[in-house]
Amino acid sequence: MSWKSELDELERRRQLAMQMGGEEGIARQHSQGKLTVRERLERLLDPGTLQEFRTLVGSATYDGEQLTGFLPKPSVEGFGRIGGRKVVVNGGDFTVRGGAAREMGGLGNELSATERAMEWRLPYVRLLDAVGGSVRSFETLGRTYLPDGNLWSAQEVKLLNSSPVVSAVMGSVAGLPAINACIAHFNLMVKDTSQLFPGGPPVVKAALGYKISKQELGGDQIHTRVSGAVDNLAQTEDQALQMIRDFLGFLPANVWEMAPRAPCPDAVNRREESLLSLVPRDRRQSFDSHRIIDAVFDRGSFFEIAPLYGRSRITGLARINGYPVGVMANNALHLGGSTDVAAGNKVIRLIQLCDVFHLPIVSFADEPGFMVGVESELAGIERAGARLVQTVCESRVPWITFVVGRLYGVGGQCHHRPSGMFRRYCWPSATWGSMHIVGGASAAYRREIESAADPHAKLAEIEARLKALSSPFLTAEATGQDLIDPRDTRSLLADFVEDAQAILRTQLGPPVVAYRL
Question: What's the start-to-end Cα distance of the chain, in Å?
Fold first, then answer.
């Protein structure tokens, strides 16, 4: 006697799950310019590698013992592969009741996607398209309930110190999924079709009394530029899925493994002539630090993180001789390169990411200092600066800084680490000190200037005297600081990162300081 009837029933239920929210729900999803969750997973994962689990979870209706209807859970979970490496995926299915979560807890529950990522030590990808809780669940339960979502959130937070976590906001995301969007090492949105908020327009109307659209409330123009809640913006869903693949390609599967090395497409000793004239002699002129990054790292390898937020600092991942590294640089095209609160927060996240997943840090410093002014004070620049100093001092991974321009004050201090494997080189274009001579002289010599017969002439005289002491060669004579030909930057960096691998192997395992959001 065979079990064919049961296997037929199993296949029938699987097919019902594959129908998601039905033809109407799928059509509505497509009409909004969005893919369904399964279409997204097909494009994200290597072909044919999705292995779903908890597929049969859902709401069923019966006539006696006969199944008459089935609505699957509003998500698809499973294992898959990206670039040949195994990952865990969890995609919200907006075609099923808008992706609204339903209470399905109880004894005997199988491991969730988060728990499997933890136990298997695998990267975890969330494709978020869900509105969180719904008052509909009260009728299903026959009661309300005390919020206790941290039972699950604790696992999400714990995973940050174990495996790479990526969240993609693929539609309107509210409630707990909106928080999960930020419990990640990297997150992104899709232009015009994704929004993020704890409560949507109906909730805002009920609480505050005004009407607002989803895009006005939580669109990409808010979160990738102003709030900084989301790192990157994709123009299309396909670009978003490729960003996820690219980001994970720089990182190990977990903190117990080394980051993967890729083939190096160009010569390690390549010397770029453009670096000789990239920094202008006239300090009033700006330059784009992206040009340094493009000239130094393996061609085409730079992956920028949060390019629209905190724009006075550039942060991202790149490769040198095939090895993944974290990259940060001041960008004088924005705020003169001064580190404001937004830029400081962005740098903190990069340093933490590198420390958790054992990537060397590379800094290109042209730091005029922390941003000054009333707006900076209102934003809390001192506390933000203190957090940045703390994060730098707590980091452990090998760190190398190339001072290409200015290096002033506490902001400049944050390009240096006093412990562990640290190396610093300076270009001849570099200049440094506790503060700028212009501005600093008028404060330090105020009485002498005010009492002079010609205060303007006296100030100019003092500034000229101080500028004569700002030659980098004088510092090198006294401290042994190495000055280099900018064209040697790539080869010196490659040598440092090669040496760093031995140190990184000793640091494998969970971070000493837990990852902080």
Answer: 57
Summarize pLDDT for 15-27 with one digit per residue, the tens. 888 888 788 888 8
In sequence order, what are the residues at sequence separation of 6 or more whose Cβ sits closer than 8 angstroms to the Cβ of residue 177?
92, 99, 101, 128, 130, 131, 132
Full DSSP string of 18-75: HTTTHHHHHHHHHHTT---HHHHHHHHSPTT--EEESTT-EEEEEETTEEEEEEE-SE
Closest CA to 401 of 416, 389, 384, 420: 416
Dihedral pair phi/psi, residue 234, rounded to 5°: -100, 145
With CA atoms as reference, report the closest residue to 166 among 91, 78, 76, 98. 91
Distance (Å) of CA 232 to CA 209, 240, 379, 459, 481: 32, 9, 23, 46, 37
Q: Using N-to-C axis directions, what is the helix angle for 150-159 and 113-120, rounded to 10°?
A: 30
Tell me the per-residue pLDDT of 54-93, one tens digit each, with 9 for 90 and over. Answer: 988 888 888 888 888 788 888 999 999 999 999 999 999 9
The pTM of the whole model exceeds 0.90: yes
